[in-house]
Design brief:
The complex is a heterotrimer of chains A (about 300), B (about 160) and C (about 1000). Chain B is an alpha+beta fold. In chain B, about 35% of the residues lie in helices and about 15% in strands. Chain B starts with 7 loop residues before the first strand and ends with a helix. In chain C, helix 22 (about 715-730) runs parallel beside helix 23. Chain C has 28 helices and 36 strands.
Chain lengths: ~300, ~160, ~1000
């Protein structure tokens, strides 16, 4: 399994990278950590003519908290995000970062690469929905900011234009009394997720939900959200009954693909189970409890 | 596809030795290690970044060398299984794997050792959960993992005590 | 994957015009929405390229589109076939035109079948996407046919054609000046670009972990004794696996494999591949059929008539069937070249299920005339009488054991050199000498022209017995390439398609007779094995299961109708627990089902049915050497805390949780009697078994041992050295055992190998026999030299190292002196001692008789190791995810030679069983697409999936082996039994009977939700 031949470029600035991508056109692809792209190249599912290695672009690896806005450079690796001090109080992000594939993939894989790939079973695109993240892009027409909801369009399809690259992801630090959880079910760590569920919830008081974001992943061509499901919880008591209703609403909005990881109905059952578990962890965390969340394996 | 093959100059330090070569950009890092410079301890067990037999350390982090292009590590420092032994003396981690029967056929072992080394470098006293988490991307078809866990624990203990 | 579409639409153009467009491939083809370029092959056929994109992954698909039917102005029909993303598709689309109000009503129908790797990647998650894409294609076709679109499209076609000719010129360099502007831009950039170094922020981030790695490397080191002799090289990266062997001047072979499960090969064009610089040659099935004999078939007629070559000839029979070999200077070039080989197929219906195969409506091997490779009835005792007299009769309608594989981490591989002196060298990872018997006749060479050697093998678990066709092919490739070494290393994707999986088995119409106490008195059943496309090592599996015919139980009346079929799936190979494992699982299922039906606890019904006295002769004449089932159970219960779990189970049930406790008893029959093959085919001249070892005091007196096994991690160097060291009274460090196998060591017979759990018995008996012979020779020389009586000599360590000495004195002779006498100083010896070489060879032969072929009766195996597993499992009834709460294993393999190695084998066998029970399955769709085409999809068991195993050991020595040891490497797959049992225990209250060996959450969920009626009935 070896990639087909391609030409290789390794620009030292974002401007050069964008220029190369524009000049080389359709056959050119950016290469960040390569953890999604290289397996595809090896299987010769894709044969780009040119690879633009953006892995050495400077200034895209930061993980900062600027006035309660978390800013993560597109080339920050999953491992760095998982370990970053400024993130440690946002457990939904560390759940996700530390649970992607395995340690080796987390060493190389980047958040920018992950959301640009937009694999429907990948974690970051879904996770970022729970934090209303913004995606900052840079391209031939300059910089722009796209909300994650408008960024992921379809499976493997984003709003990125030709020669446009993700440079940064940003989101507001969750407020006090806010907690989140993200749980993936997969056969094993390096296998693709079967389905995943995430929830970030902010409490008004002990049992009332002030605000909430829900997402399901690997449950359709793009991350599944549901205003209706969120409305069930928002402003209401966090009873089991309400959680069930929210689960029902968001699962109704899902469209999981039947494949060798499961039928649509199996995936819905699994989504339900993960959703309820994630919700309970999120609520408990919002109450200030320090609970360790973990992905589930067969 | 261009007619002339593009060759990219790289300088890669492997186990402390600098290798300067001109390579095809499609050359995988694992091929560079195994074939270009002939260190065959690092193995290939799958083609979709699942099995971890090809795990090595690049600039301090464990990576799957089958899922990297060699050109991506130009200017980097690579540590492979061959770099564990120093002056003919085994590393305590290698000894622990042998003494605790953490290997049978030995095909996954180089990758297991490198993942374990990265774990112990970061966490000198891992519990079973930590070990499972950090070796989750390394498949072993022989040992059922029981003795691998034991080996890593024993190595950690030895390293802490020495 | 098959997709059907139909529909109709109106076009505001006269019918004649619409027909003209639709019936002209040159006009029709560019209507594809993602049309890229085309070339007319002839008037009716266009070769077109379309872009197929899944998001940013954009591939070019090539399609040959033929106007198959044109009835002006009524109907046009196209047939297309092509390749996309390592897969292939076929389409058939027809257009019927009706005149309606001056316009035209187009009624269309389309059918697309998509096959190949594309469907297996990422869990087949691309299927939905592919469907969407094809829908899109049809929709745009409608739009394109609208009169408004027509003008524009035809213009686009003209442009594309222009572009295409430019591309051709660019590719073939006829007119380089005309390369497009973007090409110019890119090449200009290549020259001017420099490669960026690591930026400062990246370097800073890496500082800490780099330092930590440095610190842990620079720790104090001290010498410690290692666990096994093999370990030093393996923990230092100095193992030598096949792909590590890189002889100079090696060429590389890659294979073109069929995307179809069943198809005729119409034509093969290798010209473009051969034209690629660096390609040395190609080989097709036609050449193979001309230059080689078909491989020997083990089965009797009609399956003996099957013609199996190392490449597909005329026909492909499974997805991944090799069709063309390309040999090139590098593996990269070979991989590039296989994409340039054009193969034209005509698809045939794929036979996927056992049930379909048995119908023989489509036959895989026409020369055999049937899909059935073997059928026979194993009947013992008086079954009818037992059923008539039974207190209870229980019927079970279908149980299924799935296809999976132990997937050794090192794939099949070989470096073959067929030099101009007409000698063939295989550096390979096969695991027995049988390939010589397969390859020699196929290539028409004598066995002494074949050198077969292995070094380190990265696991095999039986699977690699099936790789001789690839070895044969690599040898042919080497010969054709002028005698250079040719390396072939199977990729994991290839392994998943064709690398040798375990066979699947269906158990139909089982009836069990029991007495009033729940003791099984008789069993009737029909078993059908599915061995994939080519029998290869089969139909041996049709008898090997009968080594454990009654499993661990004392029933005497049995009637099993056993048959085997071929299907359009990759060929099977023995897989750890080969053929016995499915049968043991079946018998354990029977036991648990009967227990539940009669309300007898799982432990109790087993205790009532276990064989109690040993040696025990089974109804079919096998002799179980020794054992203690109740003892195993008692110990396993202690290990797991049985009573405690019983309590916890009660509590859990009271809380509505589904907690199950399952027992799996299993046998590992070791050292097979090859005469059992005559039960399959009476004409096979095979019987008994033999293993060889040689040992010598080498020229300098060092002890050198070589064995006839092909170790793959079982530690043969360690255990062989233990046996020798013990006999000679030495430390194992002084015994040197050669790594791997080599025909040139002359330490083999025709049945040597590492299979059928036997090294501890046959291998070590051979080593033991050899060292005893060596000792006798050494004694003779020592007695002469020391002027002592042989009986007064002993072996041990003296001041000068290992020596033979006179008991109770300091008179001794060291090994160097002995070796010197035998090798260099013959004249110092009396005439009668001059023939002593101190180089001895011993063949161990177990005492087997030929079975009664008619009655299918005889002793088929020498030893029976036993294991009893207990699993405690909790099932989530929403997701059917099961969690193993506790797991205990007690094993008894007779006298244990090396506890560490035995325990390692038990752990490994348990992991394979648990993997197969909960994660690992090879699914196919009805077109025969491999749906677990990569490790990522198949998900072999990882450290995260493994419970902590609690183990204990018992020893009931075998009376049939010199040491009391029994073979135990295969393990018998008890986790499959125990997990099925535990799940049934957890779910039986809900009316669930576990009918399948594979119970991943998904499988269990589908099984329970799709269940119609209880598959079990208590008739009496």
């Amino acid at each position: 399994m070896y990639p087909a031949p391609f030409r290789y470029y390794r620009p030292d600035s974002i401007e050069n990278a964008i220029q190369l991508l524009s000049e080389l056109g359709e056959g050119a692809k950016p290469l960040a950590g390569g953890q999604s792209l290289i397996p595809v190249l090896k299987l010769r599912m894709d044969e780009p003519t040119d690879l633009i290695d953006i892995g050495r672009l400077p200034g895209l690896r930061h993980i900062n908290n600027e006035n309660e806005i978390i800013r993560i450079g597109a080339l920050a690796t999953h491992a760095h995000i998982g370990k970053a001090g400024v993130i440690s109080h946002i457990p939904i992000v560390t759940d996700c970062a530390n649970g992607i594939a395995d340690a080796q993939v987390r060493s190389r894989g980047t958040i920018g690469g992950s959301i640009s790939t937009a694999d429907p079973s990948c974690d970051w695109p879904a996770l970022l929905h729970t934090l209303d993240a913004e995606v900052i892009c840079n391209g031939p027409n300059g910089k722009r900011t796209i909300n994650i909801r408008d960024f992921i369009l379809d499976s493997y399809t984003t709003a990125l234009g030709d020669a446009e690259l993700v440079t940064e992801i940003s989101f507001k630090t969750p407020q006090k009394l806010s907690g989140g959880s993200y749980i993936v079910f997969k056969k094993a760590a390096p296998a693709y997720p079967t389905v995943s569920a995430g929830i970030q919830i902010t409490l008004a008081e002990e049992d009332i939900c002030k605000d909430v974001r829900l997402v399901l992943s690997a449950a359709g061509p793009r991350p599944v959200t549901s205003d209706e499901a969120e409305a069930v919880l928002r402003g209401n008591k966090l009873t089991n009954d309400n959680l069930e209703k929210a689960a029902e609403a968001i699962i109704a909005a899902s469209d999981p693909t039947p494949d060798s990881r499961g039928s649509a109905s199996f995936k819905r059952s699994m989504l339900h189970s993960l959703f309820i578990k994630a919700a309970n962890i999120a609520i408990s965390r919002a109450r200030g409890n320090n609970i360790i969340g973990a992905h589930e394996y067969v | 596809m261009s007619e002339s093959i593009q060759l990219v100059p790289v300088s890669i330090t492997v186990n402390g030795k600098l290798y300067q070569q001109e390579i095809e950009p499609r050359l995988l890092l694992v091929e560079f290690i195994r074939e270009t410079i002939g260190l065959t301890g690092t193995h290939i067990g799958c083609d979709t970044s699942y099995c971890g037999a090809c795990t090595i350390i690049v600039d301090g982090d464990p990576v799957k060398s089958c899922t990297l292009l060699a050109v991506q590590v130009d200017g980097s420092e690579v540590l492979t299984v061959e770099g564990l032994e120093q002056d003919g003396e085994l590393h305590p981690l290698q000894q622990a794997f042998s003494q605790n029967h953490g290997l049978q056929c030995g095909y996954c072992t180089p990758g297991m050792l490198m993942s374990s080394l990265a774990l112990l470098a970061e966490n000198p006293d891992p519990d079973i959960k930590d070990i499972r988490k950090r070796l989750a991307g390394n498949v072993c078809r022989c040992t059922g993992y029981q003795n691998i866990i034991k080996s890593v624990q024993a190595a950690a203990k030895n390293l802490r005590e020495d | 994957m098959e997709m059907k579409f139909d529909g109709e639409f109106m076009i505001d153009l006269p019918r004649k015009e619409v027909f003209e467009i639709l019936s002209d491939p040159e006009k029709f083809a560019p209507l594809f929405p993602t049309f890229h370029s085309m070339e007319m092959k002839d008037e009716r056929t266009a070769n077109l390229k379309v872009k197929v994109g899944i998001g940013k992954i954009i591939a070019t698909s090539t399609t040959e589109l033929t106007l198959e039917e044109a009835i002006p102005p009524l109907r046009a029909r196209y047939v297309g076939k092509g390749n996309v993303m390592q897969g292939a598709y076929q389409m058939n689309s027809s257009f019927n035109l009706e005149e309606v109000d001056g316009g035209t009503l187009v009624k269309w129908q389309g059918e697309t079948i998509l096959v190949g790797k594309i469907l297996s990647i990422a869990g087949g998650g691309l299927r939905g996407y592919a469907e969407k894409e094809i829908n899109k294609l049809i929709t745009s076709l409608q739009e394109a046919l609208s009169p408004e679109a027509q003008a524009g499209k035809l213009q686009a076609q003209a442009q594309s054609k222009g572009w295409f000719s430019r591309l051709i010129q660019f590719l073939f360099g006829t007119n380089k000046q005309e390369t497009s502007t973007s090409e110019k831009a890119s090449s200009a950039t290549v020259e001017s670009v420099s490669y960026a170094p690591h930026p400062a922020d990246a370097l800073a981030l890496k500082q800490e972990s780099k330092q930590k790695i440095n610190d842990i490397l620079n720790v104090k080191r001290s010498e410690k004794k290692l666990g096994r002799k093999e370990d030093k090289r393996l923990i230092t990266g100095q193992g030598l696996f096949v792909d590590d062997y890189q002889p100079g001047g090696s060429l590389h072979m890659c294979l073109v494999r069929s995307p179809y499960a069943h198809a005729k090969i119409l034509s093969i064009d290798v010209s473009k591949a051969e034209a690629l610089p660096g390609v040395i040659c190609t080989i097709t099935g036609k050449e193979v059929a001309e230059q080689t004999q078909p491989f020997t078939q083990i089965g009797p007629e009609p399956s003996a008539l099957i013609q199996d070559f190392c490449l597909a000839v005329n026909k492909v029979r499974h997805q991944g069937d090799p069709v063309v070999a390309v040999i090139a200077e590098s593996k990269h070039i070979a991989a590039d070249a296989i994409q340039l080989v054009e193969v034209n197929y005509e698809t045939l219906p794929a036979v996927i299920s056992c049930e379909d195969a048995q119908k023989d409506e489509t036959v895989l091997h026409e020369e055999a005339g049937t899909n059935q490779t073997w059928q026979g009835v194993y009947e013992y005792g008086d079954v009818d009488k037992a059923f008539n007299e039974a207190a209870h009769v229980i019927k079970i309608d279908h149980l299924k054991f799935h296809r999976f594989s132990s997937t050794p981490l090192e794939s099949n591989a070989v470096v073959a050199t067929w030099d101009k002196r007409n000698e063939i060298d295989f550096f390979c990872n096969t695991i027995m000498t049988v390939p010589i018997a397969m390859i020699g006749p196929a290539l028409n060479v004598r066995s002494d022209q074949i050198r077969l050697r292995t070094h380190d093998i990265g696991g095999a678990f039986g699977n690699k017995i099936g790789n001789y066709p690839y070895m044969t092919l690599a040898a042919l490739a080497s010969r054709k390439a002028g005698g250079a070494p040719v390396k072939w290393v199977e990729t994991r994707s290839e392994y998943m398609q064709a690398g040798g999986h375990g066979s699947e088995r269906n158990f139909y119409d089982t009836e069990v007779a029991l007495d009033k106490d729940g003791v099984i008195t008789a069993l009737r059943s029909r078993h059908v094995d599915d061995c994939g496309a080519y029998p290869r090592y089969e139909p041996l599996g049709c008898v090997i299961w009968s080594q454990v015919l009654p499993a661990s139980y004392k029933l005497r009346n049995v009637c099993i109708n056993f048959s085997q079929v071929v299907t359009n799936k990759g060929p099977c190979a023995p897989n750890r627990g080969y053929s016995r494992l499915p049968h043991m699982w079946f018998m354990e299922r029977v036991m648990d089902i009967c227990g539940h039906e009669l309300d007898i606890p799982a432990d109790e019904i087993r205790l009532r049915n276990y064989i109690e006295e040993f040696p025990y002769t089974t109804p079919n004449g096998c002799v179980y050497d020794s054992g203690d089932f109740p003892g195993l159970m008692k110990k396993a219960k202690e290990v797991i805390g049985w009573d405690d779990w019983q309590e916890k189970q009660k509590q859990a049930r009271a809380e509505g949780r589904c907690l199950g406790i399952g027992i799996g008893t299993t046998l590992d029959s070791g050292t097979n009697n090859f005469a059992q093959s005559q039960i399959i085919n009476p004409f096979l001249p095979f019987s008994s078994n033999s293993q060889v070892a040689t040992i010598k005091l080498d020229l300098d007196g060092s002890i050198s041992v070589s064995v006839g096994s092909f170790p793959q991690g079982q530690g043969h160097e360690t255990t062989a050295s233990q046996v020798v060291a013990e006999e000679l009274g030495l430390d194992t460090d002084l015994v040197h055992v050669k790594t791997g196998f080599d025909t040139e060591r002359n330490s083999h017979s025709g049945t040597c190998g590492t299979y059928a759990s036997q090294f501890a018995v046959t291998g070590l008996s051979a080593v033991h026999g050899a060292v005893v012979k060596l000792k006798n020779e050494m004694k003779k020389l020592a007695a002469h030299s020391l002027e002592a009586n042989e009986d007064d000599l002993e072996f041990g360590i003296g001041e000068q190292g290992p020596e033979v000495r006179v008991v109770g004195t300091d008179k001794g002779i060291n090994y160097w002196a002995l070796a010197n006498m035998a090798n260099y100083n013959k004249a110092s010896l009396p005439e009668e001692l001059r023939e002593i070489s101190l180089n001895v060879r011993h063949t161990f032969v177990p005492s087997f008789e030929a079975p009664d072929v008619e009655k299918k009766y005889g002793n088929l195996t020498l030893t029976y190791a036993m294991q009893l597993h207990i699993a405690v499992v909790e099932v989530d009834t929403e997701t059917y995810k099961s969690k193993i709460l506790d797991y205990a294993i007690v094993d008894d393999c007779g006298k244990v030679i090396n506890h560490m190695i035995v325990q390692g084998q038990i752990h490994g066998g348990a992991a394979h069983g648990l993997g197969a029970a909960l994660l690992e399955i090879m699914p196919f769709d009805k077109e025969g697409n491999v749906l677990a085409g990569s490790f990522t999809d198949y998900a072999p068991i990882t450290i995260n999936n493994m419970p902590d195993l609690k183990t204990a050991n018992m020893e009931t020595p075998s009376p049939f082996t010199y040491s009391g040891a029994k073979g135990m490497g295969e393990g018998g797959g008890a986790p499959l039994h125990a997990i099925s049992a535990a799940l049934q225990d957890a779910l039986y209250d809900k009316g669930i009977v576990i009918q399948q060996a594979h119970n991943s959450p998904m499988a269990l969920y589908e099984f329970i939700n799709g269940k119609k009626q209880k598959p079990v009935s208590l008739i009496r």
